[in-house]
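Exam review. A common question shows you a sequence with its structure tokens and asks you to describe the fold in words. Practice with the pair below. Do the first one on your own.
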Amino acid sequence: MILQDNIQDGAELPVDGESVEKTLSIIELIGSGGTAGMVIIGILFVLLVVATYIYFERLFAIKAASKVDSNFMNQIKDHVSNGKIESAQILCAQQNSPVSRLIGKGISRIGKPLEDINTAIENAGRLEVYELEKNVSVLATISGAAPMIGFLGTVIGMIIAIFELANAGGTIEMDTLASGLYTAMTTTVGGLIVGIVGYIAYNHLVVKTNKVVYQMEANSVEFLDHLNEPV
């Protein structure tokens, strides 16, 4: 009976040599990469924060710029046709959008040759596009630089691993190589993640910006066509 109890008690004990599952959190993984890995990951994290801020700041700005009253151009053409130039300028100022600023620039040139009005609108359009694209190029830089910074960490990690291997005294232990390998792998993954996020964010903003540019061009052409209509 005592033997049976001992066997039951022993069944509850872990068997010698049984493998124990080991988990590793992201924080522990980054910390295992040593000082070099943590510095590289820190730089990548800063780039990710900058890319996220620029993306959302530009996205909201572009969305605000794309909002134009569907009846705006009809009102402008009515005012211009009736000679109410001041009313048309007030309407443009109230809209306060890239399209309204372009049309307002054209209205301020009414009375001059059509070519001069077109040139004024084009010059104003370049300034508006510049404002829409402000800081977007930083996203393109981050999307290209982040993977290279990650690969730099990979090279540093491999150098550390080879250095530790050279000083291992002829014995190869995974614990000896762990720090360098962690640095190599974590920085590569981090760099690729930041690069992918920056690349997607950049291209999405480019598409959104192009839609606003096309909107400005369409309304400008419509305005010039109205001025060119025979009275």
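Now try the second one, then compare your answer with the model answer below.
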Amino acid sequence: MPSVTMRVLGGVAAACLATTAFTSTAAADNYQPDRHRPIEGTVVATGLNSPRHLTAAPNGDLYVAEAGTGGDDCLVMGEEGPVLDEGVPIPCGSWDPEEHPDWGEIRLGDTGSITKITRKGHQSRVVTGLPAVDLGGGEATGPSDVAVRGNKLMVTVGLGADPAVRDLAADLFDEELYEDLATVQQVKLSGKKTSARTVADLGQFEADNNPHPAMVDTNPNAIVSDGSGWIITDAGGNSVLRMDHKGRLSTLAVPPGGEAEAPPFLELPPGTMIPFEPVPTAAERGRDGSVYISVLTGFPFPVGGSTIWKVSPSGKVTSWATGLTNVTDLTFGPDGSLYAVQLANNGLLSEDLTGSLLKIRKGKSTHQVIADGLFAPYGVTMHKSNAYVTTGTVVPGGGEVVRFDLRRCR
């Protein structure tokens, strides 16, 4: 289902970008759940290629994962994966879109990167040459998150497909580059030089274990430090994983999915309910020792269908907050409050990528709007009293990082 998420998101992006690069708050007025006035932000970085999650180092420097712009290598993709002719992928541009409306082309390359924004405001790409896949419509997958530990960065690299697609791309084009899709990479920073190595292969873990058995699909998303190890969300595998200091993976949780009313274009009887998958996007360990998980939800991406799930130290999964829509990230603020990003306030099928930053209320279905009118926001991180949010996540070269001073919310 996450690969369907990406296709829909790409189509929505194309529709939105044809009219505007920033959506006003008016489009989201119908969802605002309280009387708090959203605050204005300050842009601290521009020109990013499909920025996703980001993290703040202890000294206030920011690191942003950029999914990139794909590249020159190309595969024709159908509903079942790459389109083959006697075992060989058909050439891109050789097929009739009217005859095969469900087919599409993905373009792969080495345009994924990590950008650093220093606390003094200097912006530069400190890691380049990571694998990236352009899914069309401005949507890409590649570097999804970055965590900092000393002079080392831990980077999740997405895929959004069966690991067999990665293996095919590696065989056809560049084995060394594309084998890094669906992995965790450890990047060592040493002056202007960097060196990377694969720490964990989430694609192989999904193929071997498939924690959520709907389909074999992997799309590593968020990573966060957790003691001596790490917590990772696999939005394709619908799972939350734990990685120890040696790179060994285990399943921490599989959050529940749900049901939503079928959209009219499916032409099902009115009121028909269809299942949706959870699609976990981020996880953080709270002060109580529990892990808190955000979910995007899979198709049909229901408005109000996203839940923040709590996994207790004993492994019990319970609902912690509801009423959210297409949540892509969460983080705890300095006061212990939980904040979350909504990618599309009115749902991905609305073709409106107006999103927001919310302060989450435990046990509630309505939440405080901190920042609104954000175009395609995705990641959030905190440093002192500031929240930093990536926006323009579907715009190659048009992504930004925006800072919000939370003291203005009081």
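Model answer, second protein: The mean pLDDT is 89. The chain has one domain: 2-409. Full marks require stating both points clearly.
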